[in-house]
Amino acid sequence: MIRRTHPALSAWAWLVYAFLYLPIIVLVVFSFNDSRFGATWAGFTTKWYGVLFARADVREALVHTLEIALISTLVSTVLGTLVGLGLWRYTLRFRTALTGLLVLPIVVPDVVMGVSLLMFYSFVRQGLERAGWSFDNGFWTVLLAHVTFQISYVALTVRSRLAGYGPELEEAARDLGASGWESFRRIILPLAMPGVLAGALLAFTLSLDDFVVTYFTSGSGFSTLPVLIYTNVKRGVTPDINALSALLVLVTVVAIVAANALLRPRRGA
Amino acid sequence: MLTLRRFFATLGPGVLWLAVFLIVPALVMLGYSFLTRTDLAQVGGPWTLESWGRVFGYDALFQEWTGDNVRVLWRSVWVATLSTALCVLMGYPLAFYIARQDARRKNLLLLLLIIPFWTNFLIRVYAWILILRPFDLVPSLTATLLGMVYAFVPFFVLPVYSSVEKIDWRLLEAAEDLGAPPVRAFLSAVFPQTLPGLVAGILLTFIPALGTFVVSDILGGAKTALVGNLIQNQFGQAGDWPYGSALSFLLMGAVLLGLWAYARVAGQKGLEELV
């Protein structure tokens, strides 16, 4: 529906867009600024990118970030897809409670989720120590935490993808002689696939982006890029962190444009 | 029909996972809030209401009421409300602007909105240091507010946009035909249709604004601490887990209460559409 847009409305919209992009542009510009203290322009340089790539802690954090994001996305996509399918497939007595459980990780402030997991891990550790076992917070505690907040997003994306289809779809497949597994693999899963992929993409980005939950569950010896950026920012702004941020912005833009091209509906819009 | 076998083949693993890593930690947190700090980041008995007293401003050590924590809670609510109001002011017209473009431009504008939304939260907040530092605005409450509005405005625009998309514009034409002046026509024929998106957008802005510690930590400084900072501090320097637990539970309770109220009004479908 196209109606007249008032010039004031257009002007307002462009102001909001300018507001949204100003910091991102400033960040990218300053990552090329040849000055140790970024407020004034001292000429163009790419040296901060060199400084960045020479940092071992940055390389290590990058590897951790990707490992956590890939594995947690894999696990949460399987679990979340199954939950989404179950929500769609069955009439459930506790549907409201289940919806509540799924909505919880999305709406509860991440600081609450982070500290409750921190205490949970400490509680479990105390129990295990009595049995002579022990573990440190790090890769595994972060991985388990990430899967926890990702499951809901995948489940709800898959469920809403299937929302338009009724159970008769599967009945028809069964009538035509398909086994339960066959109808799942050949009918249901292909239909759910766009939802599964979108859910996985969302889960992956959430993992890459997460700072708060990782911060509380990672312990002292393990960091991901967001945690590394945080500790660096707390120590004072440095130009190589501008360069790192600019690179992450670039990765985001490329990923979103690619996802948009992939998920674009075939006919029209 | 959902048999036990089918339950474990579909919903089971995910539900069990959430029970172990979401519900049990919440219960552990509730338990810790009734204990006391023994040593740095250590908790022990006996069971006490001390932390809950502190949350509401009662100091057990000096046996008196102090306003400090309550002031932080009040400031958090106030800052979240103000930043949400600014998001409404900025985002509501924007949603209309986007919805009224042709399909191609609409997609482009949505994409431009989603790019900052999906860009790392920390980086977006951090970038404001670069802009505000020359004006001597970091740290300050103004900077915190600005950072919050900036970080949360896409959360607001997207649900409002999906409401605006569904508007039946014939109602507006009918109102105009019946002689309603533009403002009146808008308020009675358009505005009510955007209410579901508006409420969802306000919730999606207010909740993270109430709970964040990152924005106020990076842009606000110690004098403008919010409840999120207070919680973070209990698990960092202060090392007082019981008090931090009680604060977290209060924050979670406030959010759940708001959602429960929303679910009562919008129904389960509304709750599912929120996310």
UniProtKB/TrEMBL annotation, chain A:
This is Spermidine/putrescine ABC transporter permease. Residues 62-259 form the ABC transmembrane type-1 domain. Keywords: Cell membrane, Membrane, Transmembrane, Transmembrane helix, Transport. One of its GO terms (biological process) is transmembrane transport. Pfam families: BPD_transp_1. One of its GO terms (cellular component) is plasma membrane. The chain crosses the membrane at residues 12-32, 68-88, 100-123, 138-156, 187-206, 243-263. InterPro entries: Bact_Polyamine_Transport, MetI-like, MetI-like_sf. It is found in: Cell membrane. It is a multi-pass membrane protein. The keyword Transmembrane applies. Its main location: membrane. The keyword Membrane applies. Belongs to the binding-protein-dependent transport system permease family. CysTW subfamily. It comes from Deinococcus grandis.
Automatic annotation (TrEMBL), chain B:
It comes from Deinococcus grandis. It holds the Pfam family BPD_transp_1. The chain crosses the membrane at residues 7-35, 77-96, 108-131, 137-161, 241-263. SUPFAM superfamilies: MetI-like. The lineage of its organism: Bacteria, Thermotogati, Deinococcota, Deinococci, Deinococcales. Belongs to the binding-protein-dependent transport system permease family. CysTW subfamily. One of its GO terms (biological process) is transmembrane transport. It is found in: Cell membrane. GO terms for cellular component: plasma membrane. It is a multi-pass membrane protein. Residues 73-262 form the ABC transmembrane type-1 domain. Its main location: membrane. Keywords: Cell membrane, Membrane, Transmembrane, Transmembrane helix, Transport. This is Spermidine/putrescine ABC transporter permease. Signal peptide: none annotated.
